[in-house]
Amino acid sequence: MAQDLSEKELLKMEVEQLKKEVRNTRAPISKTGKEIKDFVEAQAGNDPLLKGIPEDQNPFKEKGTCVIN
């Protein structure tokens, strides 16, 4: 698609994107980093990768053994 556009059209699209980006509200990383850390720590109790899945709820648990005679 970009190959079909002229250089002027591409530059116009870039300017429009930059105008959108400049309107985004920004926050200092010192604040947002702490918020992310607090959120992750609060959710850690529900994370199956950290605490595991109970055997009775594990969809990947082997249903039985395979016996070859």
TrEMBL record:
Guanine nucleotide-binding proteins (G proteins) are involved as a modulator or transducer in various transmembrane signaling systems. The beta and gamma chains are required for the GTPase activity, for replacement of GDP by GTP, and for G protein-effector interaction. InterPro entries: G-protein_gamma (IPR001770), G-protein_gamma-like_dom (IPR015898), GGL_sf (IPR036284). SUPFAM superfamilies: Transducin (heterotrimeric G protein), gamma chain (SSF48670). G proteins are composed of 3 units; alpha, beta and gamma. CDD domains: GGL. GO terms for biological process: G protein-coupled receptor signaling pathway. Residues 47-69 are annotated as: Disordered. This is Guanine nucleotide-binding protein subunit gamma. It is a lipid-anchor. Gene3D superfamilies: Transducin (heterotrimeric G protein), gamma chain. Belongs to the G protein gamma family. Residues 1-69 form the G protein gamma domain.
